[in-house]
Design brief:
- It is a single chain.
- With 240 residues, this protein is α/β, with parallel strands linked by helices.
- The protein is 28% helix and 18% strand.
- The chain contains 8 helices and 10 strands.
- The strands form 3 sheets. A 5-stranded mixed beta sheet has the order 6-5-7-3-8. It has a 3-stranded antiparallel beta sheet with strand order 1-10-2. A two-stranded parallel sheet has the order 4-9.
- The longest helix has 11 residues.
Length: 240
């Protein structure tokens, strides 16, 4: 933000307050954001894919990103399990919302990916990651989220689809590494780029190396995943 370095590697999304702070120092501009790797799966203390958890006794199998927004967002329009497709004794049962503290990376990431930045519902119960998992495991009506590494006995991760017309994808090492699972995350390098100006050639060449086959290969041994060929092409195009 202060122009003291050429590149800023970050292992997570840029929070809205950070975007605003950058814009305040850089005449309203946003930083150029280059994805350089995909977050991991089921790996402790890393940038990992987000899991949506229910109690193991809950029969729900899948959920969409718009449904998550309608459940967890302010002024929720989905408040009972029947609205997610459950019947019988579940139809009129209220959904009990559980989540890590909203200031944690897991919560802020989910807010950006599923809620599109909308504030959280006032009915959400916040607790530590461990206590959130315990609460879901103890309550059949609970719905929550966290990293896949936060799952455990009594919890089950739902398959997630991008919308009602997309397939529901279970979170696995394969679906996360290929980006098919909708709640995967990325690692980034961010930098200044003034409108109408080309990137300095040394910076462009360094980023081209990071995105090259040679530069991506070590990621396989890091707990993260390389970008797909399509994603590499997309990020390469942003350098020109």
């Amino acid at each position: 933000m202060a122009g003291e370095t050429d590149l800023a590697p970050m292992g997570r999304e840029l929070w809205p307050d950070e975007t605003a702070a950058y814009a305040g120092l850089q005449a309203g501009q946003a930083p150029l954001e280059i994805r350089v790797a995909r977050g991991g799966f089921n790996t402790q203390q890393r940038t990992t894919a987000q899991a949506v958890f229910v109690n193991a006794r809950n029969p729900l199998e899948r959920i969409t990103l718009p449904q998550l927004a309608a459940v967890f967002g302010r002024s929720p329009t989905i408040t009972r399990w029947g609205q997610l497709g459950l019947t019988g004794e579940w139809a009129d049962r209220p959904i009990a919302l559980r989540m890590p503290p909203r200031i944690t990376p897991n919560a802020r990431s989910m807010q950006m990916m599923a809620l599109q930045g909308v504030p959280w519902s006032e009915s959400v119960h916040e607790a530590s990651v461990a206590d959130t998992a315990k609460a879901i495991a103890a309550d059949p009506a609970a719905l929550g989220f966290g990293g896949f590494e936060d799952g455990g006995p009594g919890l089950r991760a739902l398959a997630v689809s991008r919308d009602a017309n997309s397939p529901a994808i279970e979170g696995t090492g394969d679906t996360v590494s290929t980006g098919r699972y909708p709640l995967t995350r990325y690692m980034y390098i961010r930098l200044q780029r003034k409108p109408g100006e080309a990137l300095p050639e040394p910076i462009k060449e360094f980023l081209r190396y990071v995105l090259s086959r040679q530069g991506q290969e070590p990621i396989l041994y890091s707990g993260y995943f390389p970008l797909t060929a399509r994603e590499v092409d997309e990020e390469m195009a942003r350098l020109d």
